[in-house]
Amino acid sequence: MCIQLFPNPPPRTRYAAIAELLSSLGEPAYRLSQLVRAVHRTGTTEYAQLSALPRRVRSSLIEAFGPTFADLRPIARQSGDQVEKTLFENDNGARIETVLARYRTGWTSLCLSTQVGCGLGCTFCATGAVGLVRNLSADEICDQVLYHQQQGPVDSIAFMGMGEALANPHTFPALDVLTHPDYFGLSPRRITVSTVGFAPGLQRLVDSHPQVNVTLSVHSPFPAERSTLIPLEGRFPLASCLAILDQHVAETRRKTYLAYLLIDGVNDSPAHATALASLVNSRDQPRLFHVSVIPYNDAVGVTPAYRRPSAARVAEFLRTLRSANVRATQRQQFGGALDAACGQLHAQYLSSAPAPAADRRRLPITAG
Ligand code: SF4
Question: How far is the CA of 24 from the CAs of 21, 196, 288, 289, 353, in angstroms?
Fold first, then answer.
């Protein structure tokens, strides 16, 4: 199969544009990192308030880019005991959300979004029910991290919110910015990219950012059934994604994660667990694959027949995997009203103020 990968180069990031402007103004090379440090430290994104910078530089930035460094602003927040959801909007009204989880150990993990809605139509997903509105820019992806870092430390980042990260070509320059020592300076080992199996993007990710963690959604070991849950299976089969990961773990020895969403009466039988264990054990390096089992949560706008399995059913599924020597754990979830998959806050927003139908569309496979 010949696939054209991301044919259009993504536009420059804000960081590249500012670097170019500062260079044209004859500013010293350190000015950009000085600006980024000031934004992170002061908690403001208004250029006028960044007093660490010379006034002439602030004026030039405002003239070239407008008054603020960030393209997103927070418009709603829901806080629970351990989870905080934030809804963001840009100047065009596009809305996306983040979920910040605080673990009892003190670790904080930010789940961010890469698309407004999503066009891949997974039948268990609130975001898939919205449809794709558009890809986020690299700057909009990074702005989510910036906002939360201005509030406090963020220890790890997961590209697991709204959208299929690897179908958005802007994910890659966003990873460059997040790991750049002069900008966010995040270790790639503290970043996880989750995918339902967008194979061209997965190949690009393991080639360009081999130290970034990967989570591949499996959700069924049986191709026909998997395609009813994840329609992308028909275009990029699970087997092709696993072949990419086999090569990746052989080259890097990095542990790779397989997510398995457990839906009552759909994919939670002993036969599913046994087939999943066989799939893992048939890898070249099965000990480098770890299965994260995630019991389904009722979500807005999703197939009503899907239900959360009982705790006993989840335990039995895990037991079957482990008895076949598969490394498997239940992904930690948080209780209460915010115990929901990414995408719910936004879906609730859309249910009261829906996006124009004309803006919703299916994702072209060669995203660009
Ligand atoms: S699970 Fe991910 S890829 Fe599938 S519809 Fe939802 S956001 Fe899109």
Answer: 5, 43, 48, 49, 44
pLDDT single digits (tens) 175-185: 999 999 989 99
Contact 274, 280 (CB under 8 A): no
Q: In the chain, where does the domain assigned CATH 3.20.20.70 lie? A: 109-338
| 14-65: CATH class | mainly alpha
Ligand 1 centroid–CA 171 distance in Å is: 15
Q: Please choose from 96, 97, 118, 303 the residue to mutate so as to test ligand 1's pocket, defined by most ligand atoms within 8 A of CB.
A: 118
232 lines ligand 1 (CB under 6 A): no
> Which CATH code, of 3.40.50.150, 3.40.1010.10, 3.20.20.70, 3.20.20.450, is assigned to 109-338?
3.20.20.70
Which tens digits make up the pLDDT trace of 57-105? 999 999 999 999 998 999 999 888 788 989 999 888 888 999 999 888 8
The finding on whether 302 has its CB within 6 A of some atom of ligand 1 is no
pTM for the full predicted model: 0.89
Residue 365 — pLDDT band, cuts 50, 70, 90?
very low
Whether 221 is in the pocket of ligand 1, judged by its Cβ within 6 Å, is no
Distance CA 190, CA 257 (A): 14
Q: By the 8 A CB rule, do 127 and 347 touch?
A: yes
